[in-house]
Amino acid sequence: xxxxxxxxxxxxxxxxxxxxxxxxxxxxxxxxxxxxxxxxxxxxxxxxxxxxxxxxxxxxxxxxxxxxxxxxxxxxxxxxxxxxxxxxxxxxxxxxxxxxxxxxxxxxxxxxxxxxxxxxxxxxxxxxxxxxxxxxxxxxxx
Length: 142
Hints:
By secondary structure, the chain is an alpha+beta fold. It has seven helices and four strands; from the N terminus they run βαβααββαααα. A four-stranded mixed beta sheet has the order 2-1-3-4, with helices on one face. β1 (17-21), α1 and β2 form a beta-alpha-beta unit. The protein is globular and about 35 Å long.
């Protein structure tokens, strides 16, 4: 049994979708822990930090720069869902998030959700601080 503080690892849950997130970002880790709590119906999701060496080996098509810009969800068929599209995908994947799905899938709203996601993503270190000491995980603001 997995403790609630431990995130499911993709090596242990090979049939789960993989959420790739910024493990050096306090805001991101907090959001991922919340997402993990929403996965109460089973291990539908496993988690991998973009800074984990396995990420580049498993997903060589996703560059470090791409992963620093937004979260990715790799579904069981290998399809990539990024940023706000990943959030929208998760509202369909997790029954506890189904209540949010109609709002996030309103016709014509995808552009707004994409813009909102990008605004939060590029300010994520300012929102809750970063845990890395070097400049290697800096996010460039426009």
